[in-house]
Design brief:
It is built from no helices and 10 strands. By secondary structure, the chain is mostly beta strands. Strands 2-10-9-4-5-6 form a 6-stranded mixed sheet, with no helix packed on it. A hairpin with a 4-residue loop joins strand 7 and strand 8.
Length: 114
Protein backbone atom coordinates (compact mmCIF):
# COMPACT_ATOMS: atom_id res chain seq x y z
CA UNK A 1 0.00 0.00 0.00
CA UNK A 2 1.44 3.32 -1.09
CA UNK A 3 0.57 6.68 -2.57
CA UNK A 4 2.00 7.72 -5.93
CA UNK A 5 2.31 11.40 -6.72
CA UNK A 6 2.45 12.99 -10.17
CA UNK A 7 1.93 16.25 -12.00
CA UNK A 8 4.94 18.23 -10.86
CA UNK A 9 7.22 20.17 -13.15
CA UNK A 10 8.64 23.58 -13.88
CA UNK A 11 6.36 26.58 -13.63
CA UNK A 12 6.95 30.30 -13.84
CA UNK A 13 6.03 32.55 -10.93
CA UNK A 14 2.32 33.19 -11.14
CA UNK A 15 1.75 29.96 -13.02
CA UNK A 16 -0.29 26.88 -12.17
CA UNK A 17 0.17 23.16 -11.72
CA UNK A 18 -2.17 20.37 -10.70
CA UNK A 19 -0.77 17.50 -8.67
CA UNK A 20 -2.36 14.07 -8.40
CA UNK A 21 -2.05 11.52 -5.61
CA UNK A 22 -3.25 8.01 -6.36
CA UNK A 23 -3.52 5.25 -3.79
CA UNK A 24 -1.92 2.03 -4.96
CA UNK A 25 -2.90 -1.31 -3.52
CA UNK A 26 -5.69 -0.12 -1.26
CA UNK A 27 -8.79 2.04 -1.15
CA UNK A 28 -8.12 5.46 0.33
CA UNK A 29 -11.73 6.59 0.50
CA UNK A 30 -11.99 6.09 4.25
CA UNK A 31 -8.98 8.29 5.04
CA UNK A 32 -8.25 11.95 5.43
CA UNK A 33 -5.44 12.61 2.94
CA UNK A 34 -2.85 15.33 3.17
CA UNK A 35 -0.35 16.96 0.84
CA UNK A 36 3.10 17.64 2.27
CA UNK A 37 6.18 19.29 0.82
CA UNK A 38 9.88 19.28 1.51
CA UNK A 39 12.13 22.03 0.25
CA UNK A 40 15.90 21.49 -0.01
CA UNK A 41 17.49 21.53 3.41
CA UNK A 42 14.17 21.80 5.21
CA UNK A 43 11.83 19.44 7.02
CA UNK A 44 8.73 18.03 5.38
CA UNK A 45 5.67 20.09 6.30
CA UNK A 46 1.96 19.75 5.79
CA UNK A 47 0.41 21.87 3.06
CA UNK A 48 -3.23 20.87 2.88
CA UNK A 49 -5.59 18.04 3.78
CA UNK A 50 -9.09 16.85 2.98
CA UNK A 51 -11.37 14.54 4.92
CA UNK A 52 -12.73 11.30 3.53
CA UNK A 53 -16.01 12.80 2.34
CA UNK A 54 -14.44 16.00 1.02
CA UNK A 55 -16.51 18.03 3.46
CA UNK A 56 -13.62 19.71 5.27
CA UNK A 57 -10.32 21.03 4.05
CA UNK A 58 -7.31 22.64 5.66
CA UNK A 59 -4.53 24.79 4.20
CA UNK A 60 -1.34 26.11 5.69
CA UNK A 61 -1.40 29.89 5.82
CA UNK A 62 1.19 30.42 3.09
CA UNK A 63 -0.94 28.65 0.44
CA UNK A 64 -4.43 29.72 1.51
CA UNK A 65 -6.27 31.30 -1.39
CA UNK A 66 -3.82 29.90 -3.95
CA UNK A 67 -4.07 26.12 -3.56
CA UNK A 68 -7.21 23.98 -3.71
CA UNK A 69 -7.40 20.37 -2.58
CA UNK A 70 -10.02 17.99 -3.89
CA UNK A 71 -10.61 14.27 -4.24
CA UNK A 72 -12.35 11.74 -6.46
CA UNK A 73 -12.91 8.62 -4.40
CA UNK A 74 -14.11 6.69 -7.46
CA UNK A 75 -10.64 7.21 -8.92
CA UNK A 76 -8.88 6.72 -5.58
CA UNK A 77 -7.16 10.05 -6.23
CA UNK A 78 -6.59 13.34 -4.41
CA UNK A 79 -5.64 16.50 -6.29
CA UNK A 80 -3.86 19.72 -5.43
CA UNK A 81 -4.57 22.63 -7.75
CA UNK A 82 -1.81 25.18 -7.29
CA UNK A 83 -2.30 28.68 -8.68
CA UNK A 84 -0.28 31.88 -8.38
CA UNK A 85 2.82 29.84 -7.74
CA UNK A 86 5.77 31.48 -5.98
CA UNK A 87 9.45 30.50 -5.92
CA UNK A 88 9.03 29.54 -2.27
CA UNK A 89 6.59 26.82 -3.37
CA UNK A 90 9.55 24.95 -4.87
CA UNK A 91 9.75 21.57 -3.16
CA UNK A 92 9.12 17.87 -3.54
CA UNK A 93 5.43 17.28 -2.89
CA UNK A 94 4.14 14.14 -1.23
CA UNK A 95 0.77 12.85 -0.11
CA UNK A 96 -0.08 10.57 2.75
CA UNK A 97 -2.67 9.87 5.38
CA UNK A 98 -2.33 11.26 8.92
CA UNK A 99 -0.26 9.38 11.48
CA UNK A 100 0.50 6.60 11.28
CA UNK A 101 1.73 7.38 7.80
CA UNK A 102 2.03 4.76 5.10
CA UNK A 103 5.48 4.41 3.48
CA UNK A 104 6.22 7.64 1.64
CA UNK A 105 5.91 7.60 -2.12
CA UNK A 106 8.48 9.02 -4.53
CA UNK A 107 6.97 12.50 -4.45
CA UNK A 108 6.78 14.88 -7.37
CA UNK A 109 9.16 17.80 -7.87
CA UNK A 110 7.68 21.27 -8.25
CA UNK A 111 10.07 24.02 -9.33
CA UNK A 112 8.90 27.60 -9.61
CA UNK A 113 11.39 29.75 -11.42
CA UNK A 114 11.59 32.28 -14.21
Amino acid sequence: AQFVESGGGLAQPGGSLTLSCTASGFSADRYTIGWFRQAPGEMRVGVSCIDSGAHRTFYRKSVTGRFTISRDNAKNTVYLQMNSLKPEDTAVYYCNKPLPHLPWGPGTQVTVSS
